[in-house]
Recover the amino acids of this structure.
């Protein structure tokens, strides 16, 4: 086990970052969190990893790991209990295949479709991304948000055509999720695994689960409410809220 307290560099509102946070909390791994603001995160993350994506977990004080999947892999190696990977080979392969599917076919698309609807509302979007930062940062970020929004649209390929495709891809991923739910209520075997964590975490922006540690601000804009309503009463959302309620647990963040 690493001697230094792990440090997680993250976006508070991001669903991929939530995936890494959830793994740390589920395993009760004491860690520090360093929240970043989209756009302003680039330089510190580049210094750590020579790329600009979060989450980034620093182990042993000098081993930065980026990408939520790689972070969970490292946590499974260093802190095997409670496990997120099934113990049997077939179960593990299935769990990892589902993790990869939701990482590739759900996470990016639900984000793109949601951001297309919500980003035009500068006031709400800046509040959403700034999270728990203080009033001064909120004012600064609100002023710079038009530039941040333009950069996000370019980096994430957010436009009317790509958003329509993203919505359809999200529906297809939800269809598969609902097909994969076993009689046990889990996606693999009869216990919680990385597959359940991934699918539920990547749905966090539309779940409004009370266990999510950084809830989106209220009141929600009409565009956000319309986006959530467009999915109707999906079994996938009911399932994901149940997974949150049963397994999200307490934060293991330490401020020491």
């Amino acid at each position: 086990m690493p001697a230094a307290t792990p440090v997680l560099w993250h976006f508070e509102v991001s669903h991929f970052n939530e995936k890494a946070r959830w793994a740390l909390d589920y395993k009760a791994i004491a860690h520090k969190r360093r929240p970043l603001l989209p756009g302003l995160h680039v330089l510190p993350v580049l210094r750590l990893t020579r790329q600009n994506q979060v989450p980034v977990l620093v182990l042993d004080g000098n081993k930065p790991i980026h990408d939520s999947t790689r972070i969970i892999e490292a946590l499974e190696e260093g802190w095997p209990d409670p496990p997120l990977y099934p113990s049997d080979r077939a179960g593990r392969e299935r769990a990892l295949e589902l993790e990869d599917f939701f990482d590739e076919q759900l996470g990016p698309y639900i984000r793109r479709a949601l951001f297309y609807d919500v980003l035009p509302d500068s006031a709400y979007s800046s509040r959403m991304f700034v999270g728990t930062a203080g009033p001064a940062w909120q004012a600064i970020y609100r002023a710079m948000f038009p530039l941040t929004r333009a950069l996000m649209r370019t980096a994430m390929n957010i436009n009317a055509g790509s958003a329509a495709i993203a919505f359809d891809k999200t529906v297809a991923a939800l269809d598969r999720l609902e097909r994969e739910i076993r009689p046990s209520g889990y996606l693999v075997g009869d216990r919680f695994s990385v597959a359940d964590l991934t699918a539920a975490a990547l749905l966090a922006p539309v779940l409004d689960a009370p266990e999510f540690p950084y809830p989106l601000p209220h009141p929600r804009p009409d565009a956000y409410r319309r986006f959530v309503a467009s999915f109707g009463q999906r079994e996938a959302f009911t399932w994901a809220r149940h997974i949150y309620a049963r397994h999200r647990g307490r934060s293991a963040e330490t401020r020491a």
